[in-house]
From TrEMBL:
It comes from Kibdelosporangium banguiense. It comes from the Bacteria. Residues 17-36 bind DNA. Residues 1-54 form the HTH tetR-type domain. It holds the Pfam family TetR_N. InterPro entries: Homeodomain-like_sf, HTH_TetR. The keyword Acetylation does not apply. Residues 128-150 are annotated as: Disordered. The keyword Ubl conjugation does not apply. Gene3D superfamilies: Tetracycline Repressor, domain 2. Keywords: DNA-binding, Transcription, Transcription regulation. This is TetR/AcrR family transcriptional repressor of nem operon.
Length: 150
């Protein structure tokens, strides 16, 4: 499950094929379908596991400015799948609502999301020859968690 979550976090839902999952997980295609029913079933299971094991235990630490969570799958799900899949949207929004409660301020949630986005490779770095006010480099394949600031 962790390997599937990592693959979905790095390449997003549409960037992962069943063949990719079978190869990465080392399982037979029939086993994957037998357990999860579909790629979406595995995606939802991986997202739920990520939320329960990686996200919720860290919610109370989120009010600390120096904390930068490794929540790639959750945040990629928010950007990549929530608009197309109501179940994914419900999972993502429930975590954001919990974070709002913990921090007592939705602006903190927004700031953390911005911090995560800026920490992504290729996001927020201007091209050397870009005109003033433009030319962001945007990487379509997310690869890492946000970097902690020292």
């Amino acid at each position: 499950m962790e390997a599937a979550a990592d693959l979905f976090a790095r390449r997003a839902y549409d960037g992962v094929s069943i063949d990719d999952l079978v190869t990465r997980l080392g399982v037979h295609r029939n086993s994957l379908y037998g357990v999860f029913g579909s790629k979406r079933g595995l995606y939802l299971a991986a997202l739920r596991r990520h939320i329960e094991r990686d996200v919720r235990p860290q919610l109370t630490r989120m009010a600390q400015a120096e904390h930068a969570p490794a929540w790639d799958l959750l945040l990629v799900a928010a950007v990549d799948r929530a608009s197309e899949d109501p179940e994914v949207a419900d999972l993502v929004l429930s975590v954001f609502a919990e974070l709002d409660e913990v921090t007592c301020d939705p602006r903190v949630t927004e700031a953390l999301l911005g911090k995560w986005l800026r920490g992504r490779p290729g996001i927020g770095h201007r091209r050397a020859n870009a005109p003033e006010g433009g030319g962001l480099i945007i990487n379509d394949a997310p690869e890492t968690a946000p970097r902690k600031e020292m």
